[in-house]
Design a protein that fits this description.
The complex is a heterotrimer of chains A (about 450), B (about 100) and C (about 375).
Chain A (H helix, E strand, L loop, with lengths): L3 E7 L3 H12 L4 E4 L21 H20 L3 E3 L3 E5 L4 E6 L2 E12 L3 E3 L12 E3 H11 L1 E3 L3 E6 L1 H12 L4 E6 L3 H7 L3 H4 L3 H16 L4 E2 L3 E6 L6 E6 L2 E6 L2 E6 L1 E3 L2 H5 L4 E4 L4 E4 L12 E3 L9 H18 L5 H19 L2 H7 L4 H4 L7 E3 L4 E2 H9 L5 H8 L12 H12 L3 H4 L11 E2 H5 L6
Parallel strand pairs in A: 1-2, 1-6, 2-3, 6-20, 8-16, 10-11, 10-16, 11-12
Antiparallel strand pairs in A: 4-5, 5-6, 7-17, 13-14, 14-15, 18-19, 21-22
Helix pairs in contact in A: 1-2, 1-9, 3-4, 4-7, 5-11, 9-10, 13-14, 13-15
Chain B lengths: L1 E3 L8 E6 L2 E6 L4 H6 L7 E2 L6 E2 L12 E4 L2 E5 L10 E6 L11
Parallel strand pairs in B: 2-8, 4-8
Antiparallel strand pairs in B: 2-3, 4-5, 6-7, 6-8
Chain C lengths: L1 E8 L3 H11 L5 E5 L7 H4 L3 E2 L9 H25 L10 E6 H18 L8 E4 H7 L9 E7 L3 E2 L2 H14 L3 E4 L3 E7 L2 E6 L2 E10 L5 H6 L7 E11 L13 E3 L5 E4 L13 H14 L7 E13 L5 E4 L6 E5 L7 H14 L12 H8 L1
Parallel strand pairs in C: 1-2, 1-11, 2-8, 11-17
Antiparallel strand pairs in C: 3-7, 4-6, 5-6, 9-10, 10-11, 12-14, 12-15, 13-14, 16-17
Classes of the chains: A alpha/beta (about 450), B mainly beta (about 100), C alpha+beta (about 375).
Chain lengths: ~450, ~100, ~375
């Protein structure tokens, strides 16, 4: 371990790993910090520990990560797993917690490759045990060889929902329903983007085969579902919703919610990077140049943390960011930079061509964005409902920060990760202004909790 | 709430203590997963109303998996792997402070 | 154009308290809240209703804080009953801890001076040795480095966010016109009335009150007043919720009604910058752990900073414009502690011109004296 690196990469998913391999190729001293025990990120989670029994279900796309992780292990980058980042400054000092000790590491350049998170899906009853994100179920399968107890109901919108349904079917779990909040109208809207998607036919084929599998399994499927709510006393017992013109109820032990994924913005917000609103999926993302450089000097972003485009795009973006950073640090001439980047730029453009189609076919459901009723819990930590957020707006609060001051929404341990988007959407809807006008919560250190004792013993980097 | 797919894989068996009961789990599992595979569906009671809560994201974002692990309260159980002899309890509401006062 | 008898610019704790006070005398009060991007010292502060240590060399200010603390329990109860907002106000007395003998001696001198300066030596705050303090805090062990501290029975604390919410609620219940998201751009004094242009239309009023925190100097200049305030950054940290163990506010450490500990007691002058500084946060953490070793295990969930609004001598400024009578400046760094007085005496002064005792201590003339001296 050094105290100063050419490049510190935060996150060991496809973007971070590809960047580390490339940066080492160009001779940069490189450190990868990651919160997990082994590399892979969420998409290639636990890939070095995958059981051979699970190979067929995990599929080819997952094992693509194996080579990447192997190359990373051989690349000679320093690697600090189980490292929690709690602060990052414009002075390019990373503060992290490793082995219960707070420490600081300096960098000449930082690459943020922290990926995405599932969009929280606030519907009545979503805090009951037995309700999880669909991605959470996928993580449990990859990392722990576990599956949720059936019957399972999947609800929401997004390609991941389909993937998780297939994994459950393959593992013999009873799927009692696929309840989609999107519908045929979204298919129509996506039609103009279909030719673009044809550039990457394998994604379409994979999608169709997943749809086929779900249909073959005879799972009751509903589209355009509204008024979703989880019923249950101390834990989830059923998903209720309206579809096909009437009230529906599907008993289940596990309810998996999904309305797409959104970039993880804790670090770029903390740094005060410029962000932009992405309307099709209704999320914020940092403004990046074509190499991943943010508006803040010395800070780049690669992968889903910069906008959700999937693992292959992330890998290309990580590689491109490493090329750009190497040239900024004079490890690469302009000529070398251009020739190294050319094939990657092409590859990335091709990989990205599926997104306009996917983002339009699977828009986040309206109910998940702005809970229509007042009783839905929005801030899980401080236990605040949509109604309480609306009351604060009525009393004059204009922004998530002011709602927070009035209600405590976003003051709990998750620091607004789970409620921030929803609070902003509720304010925008109540005030009838565009969301971009409402703003967002200010992110402050520590990003993850550290103790007073750990902070007191911190050795400050000079 | 969760089921193991391959109980008899070659992964090492590990014994942890959950709420005073010894349970056998598998090495490499997270505490959150191991507990949810043991006939329970909640991992904490909330700090305000005291209702049952369970992990939502399994990736360190939601802070719903807070548990007391080896005497340390409010730890993210989905980010920590099980270890032999680990003592795990649900986090019941706000944490306490253990402080022996000797005036 | 909206016309009212009184227009208050700035809906922080000070502006809101004055506006609520004006509502007792007039049905026509407008309160402008800049909202979003305002620096909002009211939202970032520690929530102490504090007397001890304040007002060295400024007897009237020390008394002013003491008067506020005397009426605070009744004030808080009334506001709470009226609005249903729990202020979490408690007045168990407060402590300032001294780390080491040197701090203890210094603190002793500060208190001696305050007592000397007070009328009839009435200043009520005492130095306690470590053992005595430990007896007051039976559930938390003091660290070995604590030599002692000072105790005042007049100190207390509340939830500052709740106070602000209660004031806004009270103002709205009293049918005041609360306008949020509106920033004042210009003020004109015409035919004895005030015309205020804003980001969202024009307002006019018979009298205006400038309580816009850091924005007060710019606005005051438009009505012929020279007011100088400067920002002083203070940093704070808040921890996870914890079952109650600390029942008394300590300068720099308190446990809130929700159970979180709030830690803060830093000062730095770096202009309008609200970034936190890790070095300072570390020093704050060290002092907490030194004071109460058991708190070392508490997780910090957030740190932040806010900007105190300080006049040159740190005292409040209450001043009517001489060239544009009917325009008032009300600004102070002790907005929480002084809320009851702002709502009564200061509002009355604005309505009727009745000045509280020795009021010139808080006027801008005092700075002229300093300049010529």
């Amino acid at each position: 371990m050094k105290s100063l690196y050419d490049l510190v990469i935060i996150g060991a998913g496809p973007a971070g790993l590809a960047a580390a391999v490339a940066a080492r190729d160009f001779g940069l001293s490189t450190l990868v910090l990651d919160e997990q025990q082994i590399p892979g990120g969420q998409i290639y989670r636990s890939i070095e520990k995958a059981l051979t029994e699970n190979t067929p279900v995990l599929g080819k796309d997952y094992f693509h990560g194996q080579k990447l992780v192997e190359r990373f292990r051989q690349a000679g980058a320093d690697y600090l797993p189980e490292a929690t980042i709690w602060d990052l400054g414009r002075d390019l000092i990373v503060s992290c917690l490793v082995d219960n000790q707070a420490r600081q590491i300096r960098a000449r350049h930082i690459l943020i490759a922290v990926g995405a998170m599932e969009r929280p899906v606030p519907i009545p009853g979503w805090t009951l045990p037995g309700v999880m994100g669909a991605a959470a179920a996928d993580i449990l399968f990859k990392s722990c060889d576990m599956i949720p107890e059936g019957p399972v109901v999947l609800a929401g919108s997004g390609p991941l929902q389909l993937l998780v349904a297939c994994r459950l079917i393959d593992n013999g779990v009873k799927v009692a329903g696929m309840v989609e909040t999107n519908g045929f109208g979204d298919n129509l809207k996506a039609l103009p983007h279909f030719p673009g998607a044809l550039r990457v036919p394998h994604y379409l084929i994979k999608g169709l085969s997943m749809l086929w599998k779900v249909r073959q399994a005879g799972i009751p499927a509903f589209r355009n579902a509204t008024n979703l709510r989880v019923e249950g006393d101390e834990s989830a017992e059923a998903l209720c919703f309206d579809a096909r013109g009437k009230a529906q109820k599907i008993p289940a032990k596990t309810i998996l919610l999904h309305e797409g994924v959104v970039p993880n913005l804790q670090l770029t917000r903390l740094l005060g990077c410029e962000h932009q609103w992405y309307e099709p999926q209704r999320y914020w993302k940092p403004v990046l140049d074509s190499w991943g450089q943010t508006s803040v000097n010395g800070i780049s972003v690669a992968g889903d943390a910069g906008g959700v485009f999937g693992a292959k795009t992330a890998e290309a973006a990580g590689h491109l960011a490493a090329i750009d950073i190497s040239s900024r640090l004079q490890a690469l001439s302009a000529q070398e930079k251009a020739s190294a980047a050319a094939p990657l730029l092409k590859e990335r453009a091709r990989e990205m061509s599926i997104r306009p189609f996917l983002d339009t076919v699977f828009p986040p459901g309206r109910q998940a964005l702005v809970p229509p009723g007042n009783e839905t819990l929005v801030c899980r930590c401080e236990e605040l409902t949509a109604g309480q957020i609306r009351e604060a707006v009525a009393l004059g609060a204009l922004s998530p920060g002011q709602v927070k001051a009035q209600t405590r929404a976003g003051m709990g341990p998750c620091q607004g990760r789970m409620c921030g988007l929803t609070v902003a959407e509720i304010i925008a809807a109540s005030r009838q202004v565009p969301l971009a006008e409402v703003g967002h919560l200010r992110v402050r250190p520590p990003l993850k909790p550290i103790t007073l004792g750990q902070l007191a013993k911190l050795e400050i980097a000079e | 709430m969760l089921k193991r797919l391959h109980e008899n894989s070659d992964r090492k068996k590990v014994t942890i203590n959950f709420e005073g009961v010894q349970i056998e789990v598998l090495a490499g599992e997270t505490v959150a997963a191991a507990v949810l595979a043991a006939e329970t569906d909640y991992t904490r009671t909330s700090a305000i109303s005291g209702v049952h809560r369970a992990p939502y994201c399994q990736m360190g974002i939601c802070f719903e998996c807070l548990m007391e692990i080896d005497g340390v309260p409010n730890r993210q159980a989905c980010m920590i792997e099980v270890r032999e002899g680990m003592k795990v309890n649900r986090q019941h509401g706000a944490r306490g402070l253990s402080d022996e006062v000797s005036v | 154009m909206k016309h009212s008898d009184f227009l208050v610019i700035g809906a922080g704790v000070i502006g809101s308290a004055v506006a609520c006070g004006l509502l007792r005398k007039s049905r026509s009060v407008t309160l402008l809240d800049e909202g979003g991007d305002a620096l909002r010292a009211s939202l970032g502060n520690f929530g102490l209703v504090w007397v001890q240590g304040k007002g060295q060399g400024a007897r009237r200010y020390a008394e002013w804080c003491h008067e506020a603390s005397e009426v605070f329990p009744e004030y808080a109860q009334k506001l709470q009953d009226e609005t249903g907002v729990d202020l979490a106000y408690r007045k168990p007395g407060g402590l300032t801890l001294c780390h080491g003998e040197e701090e203890y001696q210094k603190r002793t001198q500060v208190l001696a001076r305050l007592k000397n300066e007070s009328r009839h030596g009435a200043y009520d705050c005492s130095m306690l040795r470590r053992q005595e303090i430990q007896q007051m805090l039976p559930t938390l062990t003091l660290g070995p480095g604590i030599a002692g501290g000072s105790y005042s029975p007049h100190d207390g604390y509340l939830n500052p966010l709740a106070l602000l919410k209660a004031l806004h609620t009270s103002f709205t219940l009293g049918e005041g016109a609360f306008c949020s998201g509106i920033a004042a751009t210009n003020i004109y004094h015409e035919h004895g009335r005030f015309l205020v242009t804003t980001s969202k239309g024009k307002f006019s009023a018979e009298k205006i009150v400038l309580a816009a925190g850091h924005g007060v100097a710019r606005l005051a200049a438009m009505v012929g007043m020279q007011v100088e305030v400067h920002p002083e950054q203070g940093q704070l940290m808040v921890t996870e919720r914890t079952r109650p163990v600390l029942s008394m506010p300590i300068s720099g450490i308190q446990q809130t009604a929700e159970g979180s500990f709030i830690v803060g007691l830093s000062k730095r002058e770096i202009g309008f910058n609200t970034d936190t500084d890790t070095r300072l946060l570390k020093q704050m953490a060290q002092r907490v752990v030194n004071a109460f070793p058991a708190l070392a295990s508490l997780r910090i969930v957030r740190s932040w900073s806010a900007l105190r609004i300080l006049s040159a001598d740190g005292l409040p400024i209450y001043q009517q414009s001489e060239s544009c009578p009917g325009a008032y400046v009300v600004t102070s760094h002790s907005g929480i502690t002084l809320a009851p007085l702002h709502q009564t005496l200061i509002a009355d002064w604005i309505v009727d011109g009745v000045q509280p005792e020795e009021f010139e201590s808080f006027g801008t003339r005092r700075f002229d004296v300093e300049k010529t001296a």
